[in-house]
Fold this protein.
Amino acid sequence: MIKNKKVLAVIPARGGSKGIPNKNIEPLLGKPLIHWTIEAAQSSRYIDQLILSSDDERICAIAEAAGCDVPFIRESGLATDEAETIEVVIDVLDRIQGFEVVILLQPTSPLRTSADIDKCLELLVDCRAKTAVSVTPVEEHPFLMYSLGADARLDSFIKVDLGTSFCVGRATPCLFALNGAIYAAEVDWLRESKLFVSPDAVGYVMPRDIYRYR
């Protein structure tokens, strides 16, 4: 609980991964990938309940053995390539009620720590924001990005006045990208908006070495 708001954590882990088969339970440094997220959530000062949403019985068994609550098996319609993660979260909120804040923790971000979780939740509450997401500084600046036309000519992704000189990193703003590690939101707002990322979001900055496990 954080400032009298109960926090529900959701780990989404469907079984049908095409990039890396069974990636959510593949071993990483001696334990299943999903264990890293479960342990980080269990060490959080604010999370009141941790829920796994999965359609895969093997994933459910491994998560449950690690101490994660698995109160139901996700419906097959929410475990397809087309199913949106927000739909999975709303499904959990329909089943597990009585929480003011929900936090989504994808198992594909094993380097996220309990401190990251807690700081992101603190940012959400302290800023009185509707949602908070983890971000990381971008490595390649969009000013240096181009598409290639049919004739192999470069076309700038962001149009820049050719008469204006600039130095990336000094004369341009620092930019951030979502890193997929943490998504937190007020439950009522999320139910209505069905968005974790919006103009109402605040960003919790994490180092660039926090990569997703694909």
